[in-house]
Backbone:
């Protein structure tokens, strides 16, 4: 049941979706109008590039996809569980995401593709932090699945089934976070260019420190 999810998951999901929306808007505005936080469009471009024999673009897009996968692999290795639970390595992974984003600024500012790969790896790492738990599939770097799940819930409600309000709220928070993040990213990119990525990087550092303190306090109280 979604009711088993701790309250911090809802707040954290909103903030992480905000981070992803911010990063993705900067990518769309500054990196050949290509997304960073999700891969569907990139995979399509990869397919068309193969047909059009645009091999340099094919290699570039393949490396972006691989970077996202590598970020997910890192999370999968260190978290070692699909369930959200205190005591996991979330703080360390959020710090690593911040490092990836800060590193991407250096390369993107010099128009080097490696910055795009680092940003994509950061998003893959983040997206793998929260997976399937208590009947909710939480993805914070894209909203296609969230809209789909919300639509399924509304369709079931129209059929007369029970409607999980907390689950719906979680999905709405993720959608809102992603959209608001996109707006904030577009605004700051117009002034700071790729240095706007410092904003999501700092948010990740803040989340990592906050989670460490929260986890330590909970552990102390249980002890």
Residues:
């Amino acid at each position: 049941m979604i009711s088993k999810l701790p309250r911090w998951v809802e707040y954290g999901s909103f903030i992480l979706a905000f981070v992803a929306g911010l990063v993705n808007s900067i990518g769309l505005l500054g990196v050949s109008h290509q997304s960073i936080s999700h891969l569907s469009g990139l995979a399509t471009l990869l397919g068309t590039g193969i047909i059009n024999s645009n091999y340099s673009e094919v290699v570039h897009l393949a490396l972006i996809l691989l970077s996202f996968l590598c970020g997910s692999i890192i999370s999968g290795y260190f978290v070692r569980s699909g369930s959200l639970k205190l005591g996991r390595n979330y703080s360390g992974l959020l710090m690593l995401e911040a490092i990836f984003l800060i590193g991407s600024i250096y390369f993107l500012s010099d128009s080097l593709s490696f910055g795009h790969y680092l940003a994509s790896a950061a998003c893959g790492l983040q997206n793998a932090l929260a997976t399937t738990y208590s009947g909710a599939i939480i993805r914070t770097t894209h909203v296609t699945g969230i809209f789909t799940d919300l639509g399924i819930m509304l369709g079931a409600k129209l059929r007369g089934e029970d409607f999980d309000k907390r689950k719906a709220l979680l999905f709405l928070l993720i959608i809102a976070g992603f959209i608001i993040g996109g707006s904030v990213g577009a605004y700051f990119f117009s002034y700071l260019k790729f240095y706007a990525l410092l904003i999501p990087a700092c948010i990740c550092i803040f989340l990592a420190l906050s989670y460490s303190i929260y986890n330590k306090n909970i552990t102390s109280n249980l002890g």
About this structure: The helical segments are 7-30, 40-51, 55-79, 90-109, 114-127, 144-158, 165-192, 198-222. The beta strands are 132-133, 136-137. Residues 148 and 154 are 10 Å apart (CA to CA). The chain has a mean pLDDT of 84.
